[in-house]
Design brief:
With 225 residues, this protein is an alpha/beta fold. The protein contains 9 helices and 7 strands. The chain has one domain: Rossmann fold, CATH 3.40.50. It is 33% helix and 18% strand. Strand 2, helix 1 and strand 3 form a beta-alpha-beta unit.
Length: 225
């Protein structure tokens, strides 16, 4: 996977942002401007999960911090669990589950497979309308929309599907998600599926929030609370 430092100032804690599938660093760049600075945290954004290994050197860099927190969106939730990370203090899931290909706890297999096999520019446009449901005219969308190509995104989605299939059981790292934030208007990971997946985990639900969560959250303080 790719990792890029957004803040690297030797702060006391490190925040890892596992982005959604198909995205690039533009979401994180927008967050740096739109959200209050996480004053206690340096910040790394991770994306492009065709290679599931953490970026070289990130593990040793993490060891320099007093604490490491993690926020994962969408398919980034499963990738974070698969990444081999340890020593996570706090982890928050945004509109995603540990079971990304699952009729009751994630995306139904036929929907996931259909998206993968028919992905193209036209399919991508329809998917983005679902991702930003109710916000299609928001001028901010142009600032966060991924600049990656559709074939590039399709290759990533295939790699994720292959990795989930090969793994079989859901990984159980030394840490777990401490909170899940669910969008009541999510058309990708349906809210009822997220509720089922996160039974036993504290849940915060935002009724008006679609799959893309960041326009409906006030900042890192709210997410990590």
């Amino acid at each position: 996977m790719k990792g890029e430092w957004l803040v690297r100032e030797g702060r006391e804690a490190l925040l890892l942002l596992f982005n959604g599938w198909g995205m690039d660093r533009r979401v994180a760049d927008w967050l740096r401007v739109a959200w209050p600075d996480p004053a206690t945290h340096d910040l790394v954004v991770l994306y492009d999960y065709r290679d599931r290994h953490l970026p070289e050197g990130l593990g040793s860099e993490m060891a320099r911090y007093g604490a490491v927190d993690l926020v994962a969106w969408s398919l980034g939730v499963r990738v974070a669990l698969d990444s081999g990370l340890g020593g996570i203090r706090r982890a928050v899931a945004l509109n995603g589950t540990p079971h990304p290909i699952d009729a009751a706890r994630g995306i139904p297999p036929e929907t996931f497979t259909g998206t993968l096999e028919h992905w193209c520019d036209a399919t991508r446009s329809r998917f983005e309308r679902r991702m930003f449901a109710g916000q299609e005219c928001d001028v901010r969308i142009g600032q966060v929309r991924s600049a990656r190509t559709s074939p590039d995104q399709q290759a990533e989605l295939r790699a994720i599907a292959d990795a989930v299939s090969a793994a079989g059981a859901t990984p159980e790292p030394s840490w777990g998600f401490s909170k899940a934030i669910i969008g009541g208007r999510d058309l990708v990971f349906l809210p009822e599926n997220q509720r089922t997946a996160w039974r036993g985990t504290p849940i915060s639900e935002i009724a008006a929030m679609p799959h893309f969560p960041f326009f409906h959250l006030a900042g890192w303080t709210e997410v990590l609370a």
